[in-house]
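Internal tracking record. Fields below are filled automatically when a chain is submitted to the structure queue. Please do not edit lines marked as system-generated. If the sequence contains nonstandard residues, flag them in the REMARKS field before resubmitting.
Queue: standard
Priority: normal
Entity type: single polypeptide chain
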Amino acid sequence: MATSGLVVVDKPAGITSHDVVARVRRLAGTRKVGHAGTLDPMATGVLVVGVERATRLLGHLMLTDKAYDATVRLGVATVTDDAEGDVVAEAPAAHLRPEQVEAELGRQVGEILQVPTAVSAIKVDGRRAYQRARAGEEVELAARPVTVHALEVHDQRVVGDWLDVDISVRCSSGTYIRAIARDVGAALGVGGHLTALRRTAVGPYGLDAARTLDELAAETTILPIADAARAAFRSVDLDEDRARDVRHGRPLELEISSLTAVFAPDGEFLALYEPRDGRARPVAVFVG
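SYSTEM-GENERATED OUTPUT FOLLOWS
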């Protein structure tokens, strides 16, 4: 049986997140594999893949902060807000001053309301938005609150009539970097889209822990579920009595302030608990 744990993949461009999952299924010898947070085919970088019992961690990992490096092209708007979509508008952008661009990007930092891109994976009446958009339907998505913790501009360079801007972003789950490019381009009156996107971290898992598919084919590296849980969540080691309560899914008299991984005295990962109604209550129990 395959080991339960996480595989941190450095996804290449040109394939889908589902393609990565299919490859890991073959390498790990199990169909019980999933991923935390889709990356578009154009995007590269950190894709966290769960194997066996660790697939139950993925929904919680999807809620963690993420980090990206990206290139925004100002002067061209596309239907998908990235380089894979048809161009819908063009306007000269080479005249934009660096401080003007930085100021507009700075307005994207903090707690903001962001309209997701029309080709997102958000469901609209039971179907993904991107399925509706690619079928030619008009897709209108409501703005939703997201948090951009930091946005750093690394370089600005003129490319013909356009302006390419290299940025790094650290943000909450659910933030669309494509939407930042779109909104900044619109605010500057020239349009904008992403020409490159690389995810550099999902929660505690960064590129330093990621392996390419070729590297995984040579040696499949699975981070054991206990190590994965300790890295991603606050952790508490329990005595045997409390560990027994956890195995039966009971609440604990335990002071915790956020989602917490709890462990048996021998280091076995038992469950995720959250504070609720003055007690620590189980969110997901991983042992019987």
